[in-house]
Structures are given as structure tokens and as C-alpha cells.
Write a structure and sequence with these properties.
The chain is mainly beta and 186 residues long. It has 3 helices and 12 strands.
């Protein structure tokens, strides 16, 4: 059995595509394309045999990819083994997609540790006010940033430094921050 604490969320199945069982997979992390997780009986070739884990009725279920192709830098069309029609994949619509931590190599671990927090509510530790929800991680520079969507719809970038993280409430999916004065006003 696959446990949620052994995985991290990498995206969502948004809708069926076409009539042959493909689905739109909107991903926030392309780890599933960079790290091969092969089905024991599948021939290993790029785009074939890899596995994605979908949450179906609260249970994490592995699905093996027959083929996939990218539509954009955040959406792929995925065809799973043995699901051969639009009706057959309908139960996957709006399913969260996960990737197992055990398939990561050491170079991926730092990125995963921060991507784990996407979707967490960020709380200001001084007054317990909600700053917003972590929508993404900007890792384009040496100083990584949390991209936080504010309750008013605006975005703010907050340095992803351990010294600013006061507490992590994993069960509540909250990160309590101790930020320097004025940082949120930038």
C-alpha cells in the first residue's frame, strides 16, 4: 500500500482528452518525466512504462503510463495502460497525482522538500494572520522563493530560508513564518 506521507503532490488530472482514454495531466513538478519508475513487465523506453500515483476515493493507486506527450510546460496528455476510452478515465478527473519519494535521487531531494509545501497556508507568526497559500516555488536563482497567492488574489515572493520558518503544522498544512518587518510590503 502506498502512503501519502511517502509521496508528494505533483499535479492533478483535469479532464479526459479525446476518445481513446487520454487525460490532461496538469503538473507542478516534472519529476515524473525526469525519473524513471518502470512497470516490471513494460519495455523501458522514454515515455513508456513509467508510473503515476492518483488519489482515487482517498486511496493512492498506481497507474502505469502507456504513453504521454507534452502540450505545454505544465500540461501533458497521458494514456494509462488498460484505460482505453473517455468513459474509462472519467473516475480520474480531479484526482490529485503524487510521486513516491523513494524513486528520487539525491540531486532531487532539495527541490522535493520545498515542493512538498505547495498548497500549504502561510501564516504570519507575529499576529497569526494568513499571508496566503504557497502556489509555487521559484528555483531559478540560488535563493529560492515561495510564490504565495494572497487572499486578495495578488502574489508575493518570500525567501525560502529556514531562518524565516517558525513552525510547520503538517496536519493542518500550514507554515508559520517569522518574517522581517516590511518584507510583505515590497
Amino acid at each position: 500500500m502506498i502512503h501519502k506521507e511517502d509521496c508528494y503532490k505533483i499535479g492533478k488530472i483535469t479532464k479526459p482528452h479525446g476518445l481513446k482514454g487520454e487525460v490532461n495531466f496538469m503538473f507542478t513538478d516534472d519529476i515524473w518525466d525526469r525519473v524513471s519508475v518502470s512497470h516490471p513487465n513494460a519495455p523501458h523506453a522514454e515515455g513508456q512504462g513509467e508510473m503515476l500515483i492518483c488519489e482515487v476515493d482517498g486511496i493512492l493507486v498506481p497507474f502505469f503510463i502507456e504513453e504521454y506527450r507534452f502540450r505545454s510546460d505544465s500540461v501533458a496528455l497521458v494514456k494509462f495502460e488498460d484505460l482505453n476510452s473517455a468513459d474509462a478515465v472519467q473516475f480520474l478527473v480531479n484526482s490529485d497525482v503524487y510521486f513516491e519519494n523513494k524513486y528520487l535521487d539525491e540531486s532531487e531531494e532539495e527541490a522535493v522538500s520545498l515542493n512538498f509545501f505547495i498548497g500549504f497556508r502561510m501564516i504570519d507568526g507575529t499576529d497569526n494572520a494568513e499571508i496566503g497559500t504557497i502556489a509555487d516555488i521559484d528555483d531559478n536563482t540560488d535563493n529560492w522563493l515561495f510564490i504565495v497567492e494572497r487572499p486578495d488574489g495578488s502574489e508575493v515572493m518570500i525567501p525560502a530560508h529556514e531562518e524565516f520558518i517558525k513552525e510547520i503544522r503538517q496536519d493542518e498544512r500550514e507554515m508559520v513564518m517569522d518574517l522581517p518587518l516590511g518584507l510583505l510590503d515590497l
